[in-house]
Design goal:
The protein has a five-stranded parallel β-sheet. Strands 2-1-3-4 form a four-stranded parallel β-sheet, with helices on both faces. It has 343 residues and is of the alpha/beta class. It has helices at residues 12-19, 34-47, 73-84, 95-98, 107-114, 128-138, 156-169, 190-201, 218-226, 239-248, 266-274, 282-292, 321-340, and strands at 62-67, 88-92, 120-125, 145-150, 178-182, 205-210, 230-235, 253-256, 297-300. The chain has two domains: 21-41 and 56-155 and 328-335, Aspartate/ornithine carbamoyltransferase (Rossmann fold, 3-Layer(aba) Sandwich), CATH 3.40.50.1370; 156-326, Aspartate/ornithine carbamoyltransferase (Rossmann fold), CATH 3.40.50.1370. It is built from 13 helices and nine strands. The model has no long low-confidence stretch (mean pLDDT 94). β6, α9 and β7 (230-235) form a beta-alpha-beta unit. α3 (73-84) packs across α13 (321-340) and α7 crosses α8 (190-201).
């Protein structure tokens, strides 16, 4: 460890000040610099011992969760994080039925109203362009807004918890990591794309595996190129070819974004049909280990569906997707404390 002027006992208040993101919105994960990301993870590590017992960093502060799309993990983990920090929560999980949105109130007006009640807002919405335009128009007339998932392209808090999991399991040096993101539909893989964008910001290598016609969206490609990301995209590989690629490229983590298409959408049936070539198994991971000598960690944004991958992986060393859930609370405690500001 290098001797620096900051060396001394750990101080959570000084760490939050060092992170320096108080009052900021979070729309895309690359809104945060590499230093800000690193400090966010350091804060999460300091808060990790309290993710069950709690502490009073945000006493009397109020979080509002406003979700126009279904959610379990994202909404519950943010709410749990706020309670663990000593704060309180206002939650609306069905605004088109039980809020003024059912009376045709605009999102712009809803946010301005909520800003009179809460100190921070976590928002999920299907229309990313509309949300981003409203946030820009609102300017300073709103509390900090954290994206809980906008449209098909951005889910930064999912990306952050995936990054924190990788940071914890692989020792914190992103520049030494190679991560594969595999899905039939890279065009709607907002969790995988957010993870990739964060990894790129920190210097990790990214290997995409998708299908022709459903590639990484241009908005994400432009952002990857802007940070000089080390990435490549493969299309239409068989499962055997994907296993060989993982072994040959010495992949550390395999990320499966899952299917975000709703039931009843024809695209969902098409997605599941294509899953045959993305169905990773315990046997396949064993073959990869024999060839490369590496135990590849398997991550998934959840919820998962039958047919996406071998559930037998649950009982192996490869499983990280449930461990990610545990890491989501200290990470989101860190995010809320840093954006709201502790006092």
């Amino acid at each position: 460890m290098a001797l620096t002027p900051e060396f001394g006992p750990k101080d959570i208040y000084a760490q939050i000040e060092r992170t320096g993101i108080q009052g900021r919105h979070l729309n895309f994960i690359d809104d945060l610099s590499s230093d800000e990301l690193e400090n966010l993870f350091i804060t999460a590590g300091m808060l990790e011992p309290f993710w069950r017992s709690g502490l009073e960093l945000l006493r009397h502060r109020i979080l509002c969760t406003l979700f126009f799309q279904p959610s379990t993990r994202t909404r519950f983990s943010h709410e749990t994080a706020m309670y663990r920090l000593g704060g309180n929560v206002l939650t609306e999980s069905n605004p088109l039925i039980s809020s003024a949105a059912a009376k045709n109130e605009s999102l712009y007006d809803s946010i301005r109203v909520i800003s009179q009640y809460a100190d921070v807002l976590v928002l999920r919405h299907p229309d990313d362009e509309r949300v981003l335009a409203d946030i820009e128009q609102l300017g300073s007339d709103t509390v900090p807004i954290i994206s809980g998932g906008y449209g098909n392209v951005t889910h930064p808090t999912q990306g952050l918890l995936d990054m924190y999991t990788a940071w914890r399991v692989l020792g914190g040096d992103f520049s030494a990591m190679t991560v594969m993101i595999a899905t039939p539909d890279l065009s709607r893989a907002r969790s995988g794309q957010s993870f990739a964008l964060g990894l790129a910001r920190m210097g990790a290598r990214i290997v995409y595996s998708g299908t022709t016609g459903l590639r990484t969206p241009d908005v994400i490609r432009e952002k990857l190129d802007a940070v000089n990301a080390n990435y490549e995209e493969h299309n239409d590989l068989t499962i055997t070819q994907q296993e060989d690629l993982i072994a040959d490229e010495r992949i550390d983590l395999l990320y499966l974004p899952g299917c975000s298409v709703k039931k009843g959408d024809p695209g969902r049936d098409d997605f599941m049909k294509k899953m045959e070539e993305y169905y990773f198994t315990v046997d396949g991971l064993s073959r990869i280990r024999e060839k490369s000598g590496k135990i590849v960690g398997v991550m998934h944004s959840l919820p998962r569906n039958e047919g996406e991958f071998d559930f037998g992986i649950d009982a192996t060393q490869h499983e990280l997707y449930f461990k990610q859930i545990g890491f989501s609370v200290p990470l989101r405690m860190s995010l809320l404390a840093n954006i709201v500001g502790a006092s």
